[in-house]
Amino acid sequence: MRSLDHPLPALASALVALAAFLGLQVQAGAQPGVEVPSASPPLTLAEAIELALLQNPEVLAAAQAVRSARGRVAQARSFSPPSLSLEVEEVTGADPGKAGVTSLGLAQSFELGGKRGLRGGAATLEAEALAVEEERVRRQVSARVREQYYLATFLERNTRDLARSVELLEEFAITARARFAAAAVPYLDVVRAQIELSRARNDLVEVRRDLAAATAELNLLLGRSGKTPFSLATPLIHEALGITEEDAVKKAAEGARLARTRLRLQAAEASRRLAGRARIPDVEIAAAAQRLREGEETTAAWGAGLALNLPMPWWKAPSGLVQEAEADRDRLRVELAAEEREVESAARVAFETARAAEAQVNAFETSILDDAESELGAGIRGYETGAVDALNLIDIYRTYVTSRTEYGRSLYLYLSALARLEVAGDLEL
């Protein structure tokens, strides 16, 4: 395990020595590899993920979709509301209280053939599918936060390294002018120093712009204003992949994306069975209390009724409902088959990308970084003996800085690949 924010042990001393050989004064707070405290509140990766899961608009919207679906379950499982009726008949004059017959009735309809249960079952499966989708959205947002956090961390580190390079090159340009004035070096050394300084300044402008965009995007993922200040507290650290390709594919096949579609397919099957029972009649049961008035005398009575709706053979609506439900079911079957292929392919591609990125990180850690450090040390020793001039020493230093930058880029790409593998394979890495 190796962290980008913990440079090689000899880096600080080597660069101080380099500055000393060039006749420069380097302040302790500006030494490469030394962290400068930030006034912004620190934000760890774990805290960023926690904030996103609490505040990210996509996560909040997915939770409300689940809540809405559970409300539809309650609706689907409930009986239709009863109806209350009041009827007056044989009214003479303007006073309805003197009606010959007054009836107060209550009626309740009931679906037969298990239609209410099927409707509730379909709604429940849809709600479960949305709950699985909510978990998938949470995992996707978490992975995007990780990827954006890694990018911002890499760019922040790159910004600090470039800023220190600019400081060193500014001092070197001054030294080159002084040595040219003393006829110790040709004017070409001054030109080269200025070109190198201009290049470093341009690189610094670009990386600062990219860092501002990355931190703004991270804030938006956290559900905050893009200008909310913070400092990054979690370094880029190489952690082993720790999973095989077949395990990734297997996990993906059991993951949330396919689980969601399978639940939707089960819901469509329930809706198809419900549509097939549309010709089963529904029943309505009614009861009424009556008051019969004859002259000044009133008599209480009661009544009951039973009614069936009659789906006639020429009624085409049930056939249309079945056709629609079958089409929805078959469409989801096609989607599921396609998603199974896509998920397997995405998991394999994401795994290969992560494995290739890790190989690049290992190459830096096992040889490139050490070789670059050795070359820097040899360059410094060569400068002491006069075998290496100042410009060549700066080139060697630039190679070393580039090796660190590219190592950071490799580490960022690897960690980002892990985040994408988590999404593609529904993994928890």
Brief write-up:
This protein is an alpha+beta fold and 429 residues long.
Walkthrough of the structure:
By secondary structure, the protein is of the alpha+beta class. It has a single domain (11-78, 117-273, 319-425), classed as Outer membrane efflux proteins (OEP) (Up-down Bundle). It has helices at residues 11-21, 45-55, 57-77, 115-181, 187-221, 245-253, 256-276, 317-385, 390-425, and strands at 42-43, 83-89, 101-110, 231-232, 283-294, 297-308. Helix 3 (57-77) runs antiparallel to helix 4 (115-181). The protein is elongated and about 135 Å long. It starts with 10 loop residues before the first helix and ends with a helix.
Task: Please specify the SSE layout and strand pairing.
Blueprint (H helix, E strand, L loop, with lengths): L10 H11 L20 E2 L1 H11 L1 H21 L5 E7 L11 E10 L4 H67 L5 H35 L9 E2 L12 H9 L2 H21 L6 E12 L2 E12 L8 H69 L4 H36 L4
Parallel strand pairs: 1-4
Antiparallel strand pairs: 2-3, 3-5, 5-6
Helix pairs in contact: 1-8, 2-4, 3-4, 4-5, 4-7, 4-9, 6-8, 7-8, 8-9
Number of strands: 6
**Rounded Rg:** 37 Å
User: H/E series, N to C?
Assistant: HEHHEEHHEHHEEHH
Give me the side-by-side strand order of the main sheet.
Answer: 2-3-5-6
Share of β-strand residues: 5-15%
Named CATH architecture? Up-down Bundle
State the CATH class: Mainly Alpha
Structural shape: elongated
User: What is the CATH topology descriptor?
Assistant: Outer membrane efflux proteins (OEP)
Write down the overall mean pLDDT.
84
- Tally of discrete structural domains: 1
Structural class per helix/strand content?
alpha+beta
* Poorly predicted residue ranges: 6-37
Please bin the fraction of helical residues.
Answer: 55-70%
How many strands, which pairing sense, and closed or not: the largest β-sheet?
4 strands, antiparallel
